Amino acid sequence: MKTFQEFKKTLISMMGLVLILFLVQCSKNVGPIDRDDLVLPDGEHALIIKTSSSKIGESISSYQLKIQSPSGTQNVSPTSGSYTITELTNGLYTITSSKDGYIGQSVQFNVILPGDRTSDYSAQVELLLTKSTPPVVVNNLTGGQVVAPPIGNGTNGTGSNSATMTIPAGAITGTGTTSISFTQIPPVAGNNNPAGLKSVDTDFGTKTSAFVITPVTTFSTPVSIEFSLNFSQAMLSKGITARLYEYNENWVTTGQFVNVVISNGGLTGTVQISRSGYWAVVESWEAVFTTGTYSQSFTSGCSEALNAPFSYAKGYGPEYSARMQIAASTVTVSTVIQAPAALWFTRSATINVPTRNYVMRNKANLAVIETVNGIPQSALSYSIAYSASDCHDSGGHDSGGN
Amino acid sequence: MKRACSLNGNKDENLICEFHPTYLLKLYTMKKIYLSFILTIFLVSGMFAQSDSAKVIDKGNHGFRAISLVTGYYNPSLDYYINRTGFQFTGSLYSSLYLEYWMQNLPVTMRLGGGYYSTNAKIEGDLNWTEELTLNYISVNLDVLWRFKSIYSYLGAGAGINFITANYKGPQTNQEPNGYSPQFQGIAGFEYPVSTNFSIGVEFQYIIGSYTQEIKSGTIISEETIDINGPKIGLKLSYLF
User: Fold this and answer.
1) Which of A209, B43, B50, B63 might form a disulfide with A159, Cβ 3.0–4.6 angstroms?
2) How many other CB atoms are there within 10 angstroms of residue B173's CB atom?
3) How many C-beta neighbours within 10 Å does residue B212 have?
4) Closest by Cβ to B217, choosing from A27, A40, A397
5) What is the DSSP letter of A175?
6) What is the pLDDT at residue A150?
7) Residue A17 placed within a domain
8) Are the beta carbons of A180 and A138 closer than 8 angstroms?
9) Do A27 and B211 meet the contact criterion of CB atoms below 8 Å apart?
């Protein structure tokens, strides 16, 4: 009996030992946890319309913008020089500026939003308003002079100084007087302005300014216009010349032109025209543009916010800046790349700045005047793509922007 | 991808690395607390020392001794989660149920128990980002206790198997992987009879164990060791047979 009790005790002890050994051997990994990707917020979109006077230093307090977009037409009356559209759709935007007593512009801009939902998008278009010169009363019998004030910064290029129209005696038929308005207007530095003064739409070259002479009439004797041409020696050495092309009120060329007589070492241009109306100075050079992108990436520390200043600057060359009345030739994109912190995620962002490259050359003989690459499209044109990567110690993967 | 451990000025205050002086000091301090607690149990036990007649001390025969419910606080280390994922787990309540059996002619009991423990942590970041991880442990243990007749106390050790469920709730998915692993425990307790069939007491355990948690990052699955070492302190209510 005692033997049985001892056997039973030993058996229980053995069973306990076996159970412990079983437990020690027994394990199964806890199956994988696949941590969710960070859900990034929707990106912000902005199309900034900058409107200013073509005369440097003159402020524009109120004006009208007509915005035609794929989603409809909108008329707004901004009270500052900047108006921002935040609800954007892909497609062509046509934006026209207007103001009583001013000559407006119209530009087209193709909005192409980033494919990534979370990317920021910013673009800028610039419009000018040019104050119409008050009419001057001219005696038809004796003729006279009418002066158009300068546009731009007054130091370079066509239109940067006053232009003078001399009306010979009897050039205006009939007796009495005629009120004549003579205004110089600037071009838009691009080809996307459908209704304004396009920089390129003739075979001869590039428009750099224009004259608006009202009322539209025919002179019995040609009138002369003397204006600042300000051709540099580089331009002259490349054989650049100029013509005055006639347009209708919608800035569609009539095909008529007169050659500009260049004098005073390229500083002055003189033409004779037989009709008032719309005339553009076209110079025999072209700027062939291509596009590019400047990119820079930023990454935060693990679990840290991204807060990185970004700046990229590049300027138009002196010749192109002078001819196109670009007062501030250097275009600087400056912003701060920000992404909020997320625990155990690294935040990354890549800013892409659309850039322009150009070769400025004699359109006839292709002699190159200047070449510049990598100019930002505008100070506020860029897109920023955001991402987040799991940064815990076991590894990490890009959660992208979805 | 082991995180660099700086002795001075680590930005993450929660990151206490192995061999870091702060960690060692913390470990030393905690061990002192645990030892003091065990000592206290035995000192208090001595104050309540009684004759051998009570059932709680020794039945003097083999057979079922008691069924006990222990509820208390368990603070497993979970250092992987705390130091390397942002889930800041703290201790939480646990409950265990034991069936205790006298070993014949010995002041020794063997008990079979089952326990439940659950702890939860959240990561609430910017960007409306919330992740929640709930760890559920169901353990089955076999313990051996040496009972000191005169001071109503016992010391023991045991082993068991811990069934783990990690309930992950992210912004996009809910996941509930599970697995199991062994665990071991050192035990000290005090048990005082309040009637013929009931006793109350305090029980301290120190759990030793770990399990492997798989973490998936993209296509890579890494195996991370989750340390569950830590103290358990509970109040005990027993029905004595």
Assistant:
1) A209
2) 12
3) 15
4) A397
5) S
6) 86
7) no
8) yes
9) yes
Q: Is B172's CB within 8 Å of A39's CB?
A: yes
Whether the per-residue pLDDT at B24 is higher than 50: the answer is no
Contact A279, A254 (CB under 8 A): no
For the domain that residue A187 is a member of, what is the CATH number?
2.60.220
Separation in Å, CA of A390 to nearest CA in chain B: 8
Chain B closest CA to A299's CA: distance in Å? 17
Stated pTM of the model: 0.69
Of B100, B75, B70, B102, nearest to B201 by C-alpha is: B70
> Would you say A155 and A120 are in contact if contact means Cβ atoms under 8 Å apart?
no
Decide the pairing of beta strands A45-53 and A120-131.
parallel
Residue B40 Rama label (left phi>0; alpha psi -120 to 50; beta) = alpha
- Strand-pairing partners, residue A84, are A48
Residue B125's pLDDT band, with cuts at 50, 70 and 90, is low
- What whole-number distance in Å separates Cα of residue A35 and Cα of residue B221? 11
Mean pLDDT for all residues in chain A = 87
- Mean pLDDT for the stretch of residues A200-205: 76
Residues on chain A bordering chain B, Cβ-to-Cβ distance under 8 angstroms: 5, 8-9, 12, 16, 19-20, 23-41, 303, 305, 340-345, 390, 392-398
Specify whether A99 is located in the same domain as A115. yes
Number of structural domains found in chain A = 3
- Please give the pLDDT value at position B54: 43
Q: Is residue A22 part of a domain?
A: no
- Measuring CA to CA, which residue among A206, A204, A202 is closest to residue A190? A206
Domain that holds residue A148: 132-283
Q: Which of A256, A283, A310 is the last residue of a domain?
A: A283
pLDDT tens by residue, A176-202: 999 999 999 887 655 444 444 455 667
The CATH number that applies at residue A44 is 2.60.40.1120
Residue A235 in domain? yes
Q: pLDDT band at B92, cuts 50/70/90?
A: very high
Nearest by CB to B161, from A23, A37, A398: name it: A23
Q: What is the DSSP string of A82-136?
A: EEEE-S--SEEEEEEEE-TTEE--EEEEEE---SSTT-EEEEEEEEEEEEPPPPE
Q: Determine whether the interchain pair A395/B1 forms a contact, defined as Cβ–Cβ distance below 8 Å.
A: yes
The ipTM (two decimal places) reads 0.72
Residue of B nearest to A21 (CA): B159
In order, the DSSP letters of A135-150 are PEEEETTTBEEEEEPP
| A29 → closest Cβ in B127, B142, B212 | B212
The residue among A228, A257, A283 that closes a domain is: A283
Give, in order, the Cα–Cα distances in Å from A80 to each of A64, A84, A86, A204.
Answer: 11, 11, 17, 38
Tell me the β-bridge partners of B173: none
pLDDT per position as a tens digit, A17-30: 676 666 667 789 99
Q: What is the mean pLDDT of residues A331-360?
A: 91
Query: Is A16 in contact with B142 (Cβ distance < 8 A)?
Result: yes
To the nearest whole Å, the CA of B139 is away from the closest chain A CA by 11
Residue A25's CB is within 10 A of a number of other CB atoms, namely 8
Residue B64: is its pLDDT beyond 80? yes
